[in-house]
Amino acid sequence: MHPMLNIAVRAARSAGNVIARACGQLDMVQKVQKGTNDFVTNVDREAEQAIVQVLQKSFPTHGIVGEEHGDYGNNDSEFQWIIDPLDGTTNFIKGIPHFAVSIALKHQGKLDQAVIFDPLRGELFTASRGRGAQLNGTRIRVANLADMQGTILATGFPFKNKTHMPAHGAMLASLLTDAADIRRTGSAALDLAYVAAGRFDGFFEIGLKPWDIAAGELIVREAGGLVCDFVGGNNQLRSGNVVAASPKVLAAMLKGIRPHLTESLSR
């Protein structure tokens, strides 16, 4: 395992311990609404601090961007960590056992290391650029399908900006013409990890943040998949609009998505 990935795994497991302990005391969790249909808890913040402590101890000169606190450390460093301490906070609050820790490292602007850790299932998805993707140390690959027939896709609703609901609904209807079914799990990081592992055949969502996408993007790519924005470009970390799948399924998904793009979703 790459030394930096090894530290990222240590950080993810440390955050996972914070989250797992809190699962048994959900009545003690403190939550605050930070935006429309968007919550943060004391557990998110404690898990983020656990990650930051591990990363800063090993890499004191690196930059870190966290979902809850924002920037830590050196923003000018060629090494930038992107962390989501608890992806799937609403699931966590409601006692739905589907959430994860997500940590990615960019080196000179390119995604280089990635970890997504499901602390309840003990599933550790990892990737290093050019070295493939693994689940608990075993190599994983995206599903090798020739087209959309029989596919199981995943998505997330644009609950933070419901003006996109008509476009999203039209995309769903179009994709369901050929797909077998569509899931909405509540954790984009795990949706991407599941695409990498061949559990889902494709994923798309509107309006995500870099910490939702970064680790999952590298893991999907290293598992043989493709990740892009809604027009087939590479603007997904900035636009937040992302599609991920094996090459042939991704092409079919884009064909179903593009006719329903508004001007804002085409950027």
UniProtKB/TrEMBL annotation:
InterPro entries: IMPase, Inositol_monoP_metal-BS, Inositol_monophosphatase-like, Inositol_monophosphatase_CS, Inositol_monophosphatase_SuhB. Its EC number is 3.1.3.25. Mg(2+) binds at E67, D84, L86, D87, D212. It comes from the Bacteria. GO terms for biological process: inositol metabolic process; phosphatidylinositol phosphate biosynthetic process; signal transduction; transcription antitermination. It catalyses: a myo-inositol phosphate + H2O = myo-inositol + phosphate. Pfam families: Inositol_P. GO terms for molecular function: inositol monophosphate 1-phosphatase activity; metal ion binding. Its cofactor is Mg(2+). Keywords: Hydrolase, Magnesium, Metal-binding, Transcription, Transcription antitermination, Transcription regulation. Belongs to the inositol monophosphatase superfamily. This is Inositol-1-monophosphatase. It comes from Rheinheimera pacifica.
